[in-house]
Design brief:
Blueprint: E1 7-15, H1 21-43, H2 48-61, E2 81-87, E3 92-99, H3 105-112, E4 119-120, H4 122-131, H5 142-153, E5 187-192, E6 198-204, E7 224-226, E8 230-236, H6 238-244, H7 246-255, H8 260-273, E9 278-284, E10 289-293, E11 297-303, E12 308-310, E13 319-322
Parallel strand pairs: 3-4
Antiparallel strand pairs: 1-5, 1-11, 2-3, 2-6, 5-6, 7-8, 8-9, 9-10, 10-13, 11-12
Length: about 325
């Protein structure tokens, strides 16, 4: 280990208010458990990239988040997942777009870090999965199927699938087409390791019920970006994030000398002026942790090296913060 104190921040989406304190506490327990595992990885000597891959895999495997198992269905009833990984020390981006029948899209992005061709579409992802002999995996859950069937009855009029439809004992209502939105469908991890290296990863099942072939921000530098100076992962409406080029914008502003918290404040204020619906998490090489949102909630948690914290109960609307 070097002399840098490792830092970790993760998110499980952004969007509308969680219903009830029981729901919030369930989300908190889940996110804290994953943050602690990711932090243990870097404290055990793992690199930032290794820790990000671990964190994304754990979040993808949690069916209550819209990434990996538990991904939402598109308008044709199929699941297509995207993920990206960026090694800030090498400033190297890799990603998979609209892959199907794989358990952990982040592992495809991780393999592509060492390849000449580092971003693959659905066809390329399928071919690579066969080459790597990745087991065929069906990420569909009963909850997501019922969501899709419910929205099919109303011709998919709902704007966005919920990220978390059920959390804890108190959140037991069946999803319907006119249920309030509970989140936005992305997960992300940003890590600073003991050697001062930064990495960022983001994974999603999409926004749900979208047009076939739609591409999210998650496998673009707009939604996932890192350099040796800072790293950012975004969540929310992908088109809004792409229009803002949000992750790259925040990281570049930090690289130009703006403190990370100020880069978040400026970028989020600009997004709010354009009525964007999004959120982001990030950290820099000095160990600063920051977040921001223009949505009602941001499902994020972090480890400073001394304590755990989260953003689950921030006030509605534009908010930024740091640790």
């Amino acid at each position: 280990m070097g002399t840098t104190t490792p830092k970790v921040i993760i998110h499980g989406g952004a969007g509308s208010s969680l219903q009830g304190k029981g729901g919030v506490e369930a989300v908190r327990r889940l996110l804290y458990g994953i943050v602690e595992q990711v932090y243990g990885c870097v404290m055990g000597g793992g690199t930032a990239t290794e820790a990000v891959i671990l964190g994304c895999r754990l979040l993808e495997d949690e069916p209550r988040f819209n990434a990996g198992t538990g991904s939402v269905l598109q308008s044709d009833g199929q699941i297509r997942m995207s993920a990206a990984l960026m090694d800030g020390a090498a400033q190297r981006f890799s990603g998979t777009i609209n892959g199907s029948r794989i358990k952990n899209p982040i592992e495809v992005a991780a393999f592509l870090q060492g390849q000449r061709d580092r971003v693959l579409s659905d066809v390329g992802t399928a071919e690579l999965a066969r080459e790597l002999a990745l087991p065929i995996h069906n990420p569909l859950t009963d909850l997501r199927l019922q969501e899709w069937l419910s929205d099919r009855k109303t011709d998919f009029q709902r704007r966005m699938a919920s990220t978390i439809a059920e959390f804890g004992e108190e959140a037991t209502a069946e999803p319907t087409a006119d249920d309030p939105e509970a989140g936005r469908g992305t997960i992300g991890v940003v890590v600073l390791d003991g050697e001062g290296r930064i990495a960022a990863g983001t994974s999603t099942g999409g926004k749900g019920f979208e047009r076939i072939g739609r591409v999210s921000d998650s496998a673009m530098p707009a939604g996932n970006y890192a350099t040796e100076i800072a790293g950012v992962s975004c969540t929310g409406i992908g088109e809004d994030i792409i229009d803002e080029c949000l992750a790259a914008k925040i990281v570049i502003r930090t690289g130009d000398g703006l403190p990370l918290a100020a880069a978040f404040e400026k970028s989020m204020a600009e997004a709010a002026l354009r009525d964007r619906d999004l959120g982001a998490i990030g950290l820099d090489r000095r160990g600063a942790i920051a977040w921001g949102k223009c949505s009602e909630v941001l499902l994020a948690a972090y480890h400073t090296g001394d304590r755990l914290g989260d953003t689950l109960e921030l006030p509605d609307g534009l908010q930024t913060g740091h640790a």
